Automatic annotation (TrEMBL):
Modified residues (4-aspartylphosphate): 57
Alphabetized UniProt keyword annotations: DNA-binding, Phosphoprotein, Transcription, Transcription regulation
Phylogenetic classification of the source organism: Bacteria, Pseudomonadati, Pseudomonadota, Betaproteobacteria, Burkholderiales
PANTHER family: DNA-BINDING TRANSCRIPTIONAL ACTIVATOR DEVR_DOSR
One matching Pfam family: GerE
Molecular functions per Gene Ontology: DNA binding
Domain Response regulatory: 7-119
Domain of life: Bacteria
Name listed for the protein in its UniProt record: DNA-binding response regulator
Record carries keyword DNA-binding: yes
C-alpha cells in the first residue's frame, strides 16, 4: 500500500542508514523524515496533523529506542530496526506494541512489507485519534450543566427523572437536552449514547 500521506519517521543515529532507508522508501512513494536522536524526534516530529509510522533503532545517543517507544504510548505504529537484536529486546518491544522487529541489514522486501503494515495501522490510528479530538472539541462546547444532563440522559433516565436528580423542572431539562444535541451535532438518542460512551461520560445511577 502506498500511503503518501503517511510520514515514515526514521530514528537512527547513523546518517548513512537514514539516507539508505530514505532512498528505498522514497523510491516506492513514501514520505520520510530522518532523526538522529530521540530528543530531536520528540522536538520536531508533528504527530497531530498527519498519520505517521516509525522505523526505530534501539541504540540511540540520548535515550534508548525502547524508552522512546514507551514514551510515545502507542501514539504511532513502531517498527524496530536494529543491528543489536536479542531475544529480551525483541520481547520487550513487542510487548510494548511494536508491530515488527527487524534486524539490520534488512532486505527491501522485509522493509517494505513492514512499512506497508505500519502505514495501514497508522491510517486507522490517525482516523481514530482525529475523531476523538473532534468529539472533544464538541464536548468542550457544553456547559457544566449540559454535561450533567447528557450523562444522565445516556444512562437511560427520562427528562423528568433527570430534573428530579438535578433539582429543576422537566421543561429546563428539555431545553438543555436540545442544546446538547445541537452542540454535538446529532439528532437522536443512540447517537448521543455513542458519543458519551466514547468519551466516558455515562453517569453513575448510584451516585
Amino acid at each position: 500500500m502506498l500511503a503518501t500521506r503517511t510520514t515514515i519517521y526514521i530514528v537512527d543515529d547513523d546518517d548513512s542508514v537514514r539516507r539508505a532507508l530514505g532512498r528505498v522508501l522514497g523510491a516506492h512513494g513514501y514520505l520520510t523524515a530522518g532523526f538522529a536522536s530521540a530528543s530531536q524526534f520528540l522536538e520536531e516530529a508533528d504527530l497531530d496533523n498527519a498519520p505517521g509510522c516509525m522505523l526505530l533503532d534501539l541504540q540511540l545517543p540520548d535515550i534508548s529506542g525502547i524508552d522512546l517507544q514507551q514514551a510515545l504510548c502507542s501514539r504511532i505504529p513502531v517498527i524496530i530496526l536494529t543491528g543489536h537484536a536479542d531475544v529480551a529486546s525483541a520481547v520487550l518491544t513487542m510487548q510494548a506494541g511494536a508491530i515488527d522487529f527487524l534486524q539490520k541489514p534488512v532486505s527491501d522486501v522485509q522493509l517494505l512489507a513492514a512499512v506497508s503494515k505500519g502505514c495501514d495501522c497508522a491510517t486507522r490510528q490517525f482516523a481514530l485519534a482525529s475523531e476523538l479530538r473532534d468529539l472533544k472539541k464538541k464536548i468542550d462546547r457544553l456547559t457544566p450543566r449540559e454535561r450533567e444532563v447528557l450523562a444522565w440522559i445516556v444512562t437511560g433516565f427520562r427528562n423528568k427523572q433527570v430534573a428530579n436528580r438535578l433539582g429543576t423542572v422537566e421543561k429546563t431539562i428539555k431545553v438543555h437536552r436540545a442544546h446538547v444535541m445541537q452542540k454535538l451535532e446529532v439528532d437522536s438518542l443512540p447517537a448521543l449514547v455513542r458519543i458519551a460512551d466514547r468519551m466516558g461520560m455515562v453517569a453513575d445511577p448510584a451516585a
